[in-house]
Amino acid sequence: MDCPFSDSLILAGGTLFAGGDGSAKGYDVSNGSEVWSSTFEGKARGLAAANGNLFLTTDKGAIHCFGGTAKTAPRQTAPQTVDAPYPADATAQRLAKTAERIVNDSGIRQGFALVTGGGNGQLAYEIAKRTDDLLIHVVEPDAERASAARRLLTRAGVHGGKVVVLNAGFDTIPYADYFANLIVCEDSLDGSAPGLSVAELMRMLKPCGGKAYFGNPSAAKPSGALTGWVKAVQSLLDADQDKATTVSLNGGAGAITRGKLPGAGTWTHQYGTPGNTASSSDTAVRAPIGILWYGEPGPGRMPSRHASNAAPLSVNGRFFVQGENVIMTHDAYNGTKLWEREIPGALRTGLKSRCSNLVAREDSLFVVAGGKCQRLDADTGETIQTYKVPLGEGKGTGNWGEYVACVGDLLFG
Fold first, then answer.
1. Of 197, 142, 200, 196, the residue nearest 167 (C-alpha)
2. What is the number of other CB atoms lying within 10 angstroms of the CB of residue 151?
């Protein structure tokens, strides 16, 4: 039988439920006849059956529940939220000021954040109010505090969307290496040393710009415990020969700014380097290896791999990949989408016998498309400069051909 639904499929008893774009249907498995149908907004991404009910989730964020035999108007429910879930007291003012300082100083407003010893979630809430695309993970070892934080953040309408709370010890945090753009040790706001070990903090703090904050910003000087913790950070950096990462103390508070990972290599051309060596200078990657992140950009905008496309490039913590007339850039360590740029003609296939049209360096991405070479800002994707091929004195310019490479400040084509 023909079925137009390709997004989800489950078998519940003698009924096969299939979901697609805007509708779902149920079929009797004995004869294929349609026994149920419904419409909704969005695509059916998930189906589940329990206690005589069918649950359906969509890519619009809605959860639908179907049950019974009588046709009645659907009842809509939504969480009841409030604008101010926490008391407007001195603690609220102090945490709001702390969040403002952290967000402004770090400049981090997207990616992933970790707040350790998050208590009732109030500092995470204040950070969430000041950021747009930052998913904040709160780790609280105390089960009752973690539960209270979830309730309060749910009332604020941010739990699950902008903030999630995990009840776990600091030595059992199940997050991937280098996932956090921002780490805030809230348990050290009283001036004590963070409960998170130095090794665990550095394991999770993202290289190439990750920031961590700790200590009491209101104190005139750090406590002895905090000073000792900072010395432990510096000792670890010295042991790893990490000269790019800095740790500083200002009064009773401090910050860590993560630099490049010692030994991390680059892949700036189709075959690694301008010399087509098909290798990099990386000395950091060692077995055993695992997955840091997965998800976007996905296959949606990518040409078939059998077409021999231009290889992705990576330098300075960024991952550049070319789709069909589009350049997509993600954080190489946690997958955060940094920018996307539509460029007509930005598609190069057949690289078994051709050159790539992409070259990357620390601050730029060069893209050959439409007979010209554009230099894009690696941070924003905006065009910094456009290059055309000079044909000689008095002859104007011509189209940029196949080849592009960059060595230092020299661009070759």
1. 142
2. 14
